[in-house]
């Protein structure tokens, strides 16, 4: 288990790199985003079961590809296919390579944000207070998983860098709980008032028993499967079709990506190279599927200083034409 000093050092290292570069199927996930407004759920984070991970979380980056429907299906509704961004593994993402260039043109910024990666962070731990939220069914293993949005993660990270925090919040004896508070801002869920508890709390006998009996999860096991070279080419093809407004073509891509209700296959899936990717009908940003909280989108800042179009929004056909024009230069 990494020390607090090691975590701080690595976080600072990541911050320095960022500032220097402008350019699963069970019900273990606790859906904190479903608690009522004005309520607070209390969580207790635990270390990663993978000793080589300095942090007690892993980062997840996904890209949503919207399609007009599914080819060949009558009355097919608009869907979103979620694919992993390979920057999670330090690779070059073929989709973001294209999208990054769009932010140099104010007319393409809106489309760029649509296809930009959505970050989230995977943690594990206990739910000590659900904030009044009642789950239909809870798993036998009390060690739950949490998909944390960037807004909440920044609060967690900020406290870790605070010199007044003397012990790891995941320490079994001297750790502290984290309180997720849901409010509303501008018509959207807001978690900016979430905070760490002020007092340390040793884990209970029940919690220690859960750790001893079940062990800690290796969080990386719950990340999406790393795409192969062939799958990367398919992802790029799907991306181009999505931008063109085409429907999802199961005959072309079904061998690699399958539209359905299942979650993204994890790296522990041993069936074959296929993965299940969620497809949901287009819905307002406030609503979210059971395992998919509403994420903030961290998009790069446009490098062009020219003013946006006076109409404030280009039609999809105009945007596509602008993209093709840039590619043909």
How would you describe this protein?
This protein is α+β, with helices and mostly antiparallel strands and 329 residues long. The protein has one domain (4-327): Replication Fork Single-Stranded DNA Binding Protein (Alpha-Beta Complex). The chain is 26% helix and 19% strand. It contains 8 helices and 10 strands. The protein has helices at residues 4-19, 94-102, 109-115, 150-160, 205-214, 229-243, 250-253, 316-327, and strands at residues 39-45, 58-67, 79-84, 118-129, 144-148, 178-185, 188-190, 195-196, 257-260, 275-278. The strands form 2 sheets. Strands 1, 2, 3, 4, 5, 6, 7 and 8 form an 8-stranded antiparallel beta sheet that branches. Strands 9-10 form a two-stranded parallel ribbon. A hairpin with a 2-residue loop joins strand 6 (178-185) and strand 7. Helix 2 runs antiparallel to helix 3.
Helix content: 25-40%
pLDDT averaged residue by residue: 80
β-sheet strand percentage: 15-25%
The succession of helices and strands, N to C, reads HEEEHHEEHEEEHHHEEH
Number of strands: 10
CATH homolog superfamily: Replication Fork Single-Stranded Dna Binding Protein
User: How many discrete structural domains?
Assistant: 1
Query: How would you characterize the largest beta sheet?
Result: 8 strands, antiparallel
Please report the number of helical segments.
8
